[in-house]
Amino acid sequence: MTATTALKRQAAPRAAGPAPARRGRRRGRLIALLFVLPALLLLGALVVYPVLFSVGRSFFDASGTRFVGGANYTEMFRDPATLKAIRNTTIWVVVAPALLTGLGLILAVLVEKVRWATAFKLLLFMPMAVSFLAAGIIFRLAYDEDPDKGVLNAAVVSVHDAFQGTSTYPTARGRTGLLTQDPDGSYRTTASAGDTVTLPMVGVLPKDLPRDAAPARTAAGRKAAPGELRGVVYLDFTPGGGGKQGAVDPEESGLPGMTVQAVRDGRTVASTTTAADGSFRFPGLERGSYTVKLPESNFAPPYQGISWLGPTLVTPAIIGAYLWIWTGFAMVLIGAGLSTLPRDALEAARMDGANEWQIFRRITVPLLAPVLTVVFVTLVINVMKVFDLVYIIAPGPVQEDATVLATQMWLVSFGGGNDQGLGSALGVLLLLLVIPAMVFNVRRFRQSQR
């Protein structure tokens, strides 16, 4: 046997060794592929196919039969509603993630310093368990302009009335032919010092009278002293019918709390408020004629609060609802990052004389920068897709003022526009805006794993 033959026989078993290993690896990959295949099929059916179909559909007209090329994309940037949706989406992307990240950071830092941190976190995180549909209904009611329904306007009206006051008789009006109405809504009549004047009013329901209102008959019968102007403001209506117009009947009530002014030569010389029986008096007046005036403030309509869902405030109002839902999410994520910070660095800074603000600004925030970036970018992706809150909270008349790309895409395609070509173009635009943020987030996750 030659040396060459011996070497071949020794090498033969070695060459046969890698083949079973390769077959084992192939078998393992095949098994892994079989396990992953259902997920890949779902991913393709629910994500890849719709994306590709939308891209293709965006190059056809509304009927889907005629190829129009980039006409839908051109039309998209000419449509005022779409431009407004892009503007509102920009506001959402700039404002909402920044506010949420800031609130989450502040709350995460403050929660560390309280004993009941877990309960506080649970309380703030609870809105995440509420669906966007339910949250939208809640805030639609909270933002209602009627103070009897909307809790926010109820609070605003209460504060306003506490400082500014409110008119007692917004529906009252003077008896026609007996009182003269000025263009500003005030009522007046003429009297002289030493007279007793009656000011009949109508338009006030008996149930709306103040509880301390008293009959006006006695006050109307009092005589004015010299140099005094006296009178009564009363409701010229007798419950059950009867009575005489312009005369104070026994059962007719005075109107307390009315502001009455005595005006002479265009200048208010005296002012007073009616008593429980509607009576008033101006003592110490000079002789002559005066205009007895009921200012327009007596009949001003009640303050109804703020139009939260009007064209001006509808987008900030919806962003406020979004903050209520997602603040707990940002706080919990940032709090998790805060718990991993090296405590020795914080204690060293305190021993060196740094106050809490300096520690927060120069140590805590820089060390949390990666976490803050991930939270911010995640929220940017989320707000680009916001749909439920905008569609539910914004009333129909201001829907266009609050629309974002997601709602505009739905409205154009299915909400009455019936132009799925333009709607698909809007969907592609939304996808192109989301992809950079997604790529950035994936890279950050990979860097953190390394």
Structure in words:
- This protein is of the alpha+beta class and 450 residues long.
- It folds into 2 domains: 227 residues, Orthogonal Bundle (MetI-like fold), CATH 1.10.3720; 127 residues, no CATH class.
- Helix content is 54%, strand content 10%.
- It contains 16 helices and 9 strands.
- The strands form 2 sheets. Strands 2-3-9-6-7 form a 5-stranded antiparallel sheet, with no helix packed on it. It has a 4-stranded mixed sheet with strand order 1-4-5-8, with no helix packed on it.
- A hairpin with a 2-residue loop joins strand 6 and strand 7.
- Helix 2 packs antiparallel against helix 16, helix 12 packs antiparallel against helix 16 and helix 15 packs antiparallel against helix 16.
- The longest helix has 40 residues.
- The chain is elongated and about 125 Å long.
- The model has no long low-confidence stretch (mean pLDDT 86).
Write the layout of secondary structure elements.
Blueprint: H1 3-16, H2 18-57, H3 71-76, H4 80-111, H5 117-125, H6 132-142, H7 151-164, E1 173-174, E2 180-181, E3 187-192, E4 196-202, H8 217-220, E5 229-235, E6 259-264, E7 267-273, E8 279-282, E9 289-294, H9 314-339, H10 343-351, H11 356-367, H12 369-384, H13 388-393, H14 399-402, H15 405-413, H16 420-449
Parallel strand pairs: 4-5
Antiparallel strand pairs: 1-4, 2-3, 3-9, 5-8, 6-7, 6-9
